[in-house]
Recover the amino acids of this structure.
């Protein structure tokens, strides 16, 4: 494992276990067995380290989601696959741990909160909004603000299992429950954003 990834692994574990306030550059350097100066050669601040840790954690998932959001696929099936993927990611142990961290310390450290939302929720919402905008252009969905539509779908996914996990009522969500919640969310979304009848009729005629 290269040095940068070793630093990010250690930082991830520390942020989750000790929180943002409880994680320091000195403590990470000590755990890695190097000097603080060496750590700073890679990351000039704790904010930069937190940002890099999140970027690495989300980069692979954004690529996966991009592949799922195939504009040539059947809209309902594509959204169902994307929704299942999203809800599994959101409710994963890593996802819940990071959300708890932001809830606990975001008010004290607004920069941490900004980084988190920019690299996770906002980046995912942009991908989804681009896909939905294309579906609206093709008449598969009624015309609306794609960003708002993406926000609505993502909000529907953060439902029962997510809240029970965040509050500690569940240790782990059942895959069948997550799939059910994802399909319900997509069903509600498609009814809310169904194309106007005359537009839908023209598309079917073509």
């Amino acid at each position: 494992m290269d040095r940068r990834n070793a630093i990010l692994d250690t930082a991830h574990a520390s942020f989750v276990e000790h929180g943002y306030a409880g994680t320091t550059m000195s403590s990470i350097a000590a755990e890695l067995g190097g000097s603080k100066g060496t750590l700073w050669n890679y990351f000039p601040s704790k904010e930069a380290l937190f940002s890099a840790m999140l970027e690495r954690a989300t980069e692979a998932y954004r690529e996966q989601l991009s592949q799922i959001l195939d504009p040539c696929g059947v809209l309902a099936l594509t959204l169902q696959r994307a929704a299942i993927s999203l809800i599994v990611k959101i409710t994963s142990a890593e996802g819940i741990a990071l959300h708890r961290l932001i809830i606990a310390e975001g008010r004290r450290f607004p920069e941490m909160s900004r980084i988190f939302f920019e690299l996770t929720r906002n980046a995912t919402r942009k991908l989804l909004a681009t896909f939905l905008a294309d579906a609206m252009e093709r008449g598969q969905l009624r015309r609306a603000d794609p960003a708002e539509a993406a926000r609505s779908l993502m909000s529907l996914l953060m439902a029962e299992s997510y809240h029970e996990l965040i509050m500690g009522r569940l240790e782990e969500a059942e895959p069948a429950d997550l799939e059910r919640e994802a399909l319900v969310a997509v069903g509600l979304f498609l009814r809310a954003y169904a194309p106007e009848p005359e537009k839908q009729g023209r598309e079917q005629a073509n």
In short: The chain has a mean pLDDT of 90.
